[in-house]
Design goal:
It is a single chain. It contains nine helices and ten strands. The strands form three sheets. The chain has a four-stranded antiparallel β-sheet. A four-stranded antiparallel β-sheet has the order 5-4-7-10, with no helix packed on it. A two-stranded antiparallel sheet has the order 1-2. The longest helix has 26 residues. Keywords: Membrane, Transmembrane, Transmembrane helix.
């Protein structure tokens, strides 16, 4: 029986498929991220979030989130804030915040930024709805200019005598004007019992808090959740606090609630929180609605 010729790579009744494996296949290391910022950015893009979305979720300014992704630590406000921002970023993209924090701490140490502290600054809210529009800003500026101009016109007319602002005072009112006004009662002295009571910080929402003494010794540092509380040691040497959301901290001294540590969404730092200092503070006046 004559032998039939078959094409190369083919056997009678079967076809042999040859697959060549290239030598340029990507290695496992090429799939690994070199920095924590690259890992966070990749996960954010995988979930389809923009930096503006992350800023609204974490309440961290968008420029700081971008600096973390680029590992531009010199543009961030210190290592402590950087670690806190990274943990918030990791939770927003459903990564392990503890592992991200540990990896970033090692990265900060390798780059020489561990313990770095930038000058304190106020962080504005990242919610675009809270930022006034350009039209509103220009309108407010125009109203301010008109108000100032009207004041100077009124004052110039008053000084040159064209407007008489004097009015006759009835005799009955003169007798009332001559009577001396009663003296204001002296402000009440601080409650001595409260001055000896403990100072307790209670969080009503998620907030990062750091407490330290006059020698810059850290007494407490944590991202507090709603319901968490911390009692300041009574023997602490001039305890002070730094936090970015003082309005969500309820402060009591000896069971007595004291005024808020600062205005909403404004960072406070180097604020003494001993019992004597808190009771001596003047309550901040809230603007009328």
């Amino acid at each position: 029986m004559p032998l039939s010729a078959h094409p190369p790579g083919e056997v009678e009744g079967h076809r042999v498929v040859e697959i060549a494996v290239g030598e340029d296949s990507p290695s496992e290391d090429e799939f690994r991220f070199h920095t924590v910022g690259e890992q966070l950015k990749a996960e954010r893009e995988r979930l389809g979030f923009s930096l503006a979305d992350l800023a609204a979720r974490t309440r961290v300014p968008m420029r700081h989130l971008e600096s973390i992704e680029k590992s531009d630590f010199s543009a961030l406000p210190g290592s402590t804030y950087t670690l806190g921002f990274a943990r918030s970023y990791a939770r927003a993209v459903e990564l392990d915040a503890i592992k991200i924090s540990a990896d970033l701490r090692s990265e900060l140490a390798q780059s020489g930024h561990e313990g770095y502290q930038a000058p304190l600054q106020n962080y504005e809210p990242t919610d675009p709805a809270r930022v006034p529009s350009r039209t509103l800003a220009w309108t407010a500026a125009a109203i301010g200019v008109l108000f100032v101009a009207g004041y100077f016109i009124w004052r110039s007319m008053t000084l040159d005598g064209s407007v008489d602002i004097t009015m006759p005072v009835p005799f009955a009112e003169k007798s009332q004007i001559a009577a001396p006004a009663p003296k204001a009662a002296p402000p009440p002295s601080p409650d001595m019992t409260a001055m000896k009571g403990p100072v307790i910080l209670t969080a009503t929402d998620t907030v990062w808090v750091k407490v330290y003494d006059a020698e810059n010794k850290r007494l407490y540092e944590k991202e507090m959740q709603s319901g968490d509380s911390y009692t300041v040691p009574a023997d602490a040497n001039k305890p002070m606090i730094v936090t970015g959301r003082p309005e969500v901290l309820t402060v009591t001294v000896g069971g007595k609630t004291v005024p808020s540590l600062g205005p909403p969404e404004k960072t406070v730092a180097d604020l003494e929180i001993s019992a004597q200092a808190l009771l001596a503070r003047t309550p901040t006046a809230n603007p009328a609605p």
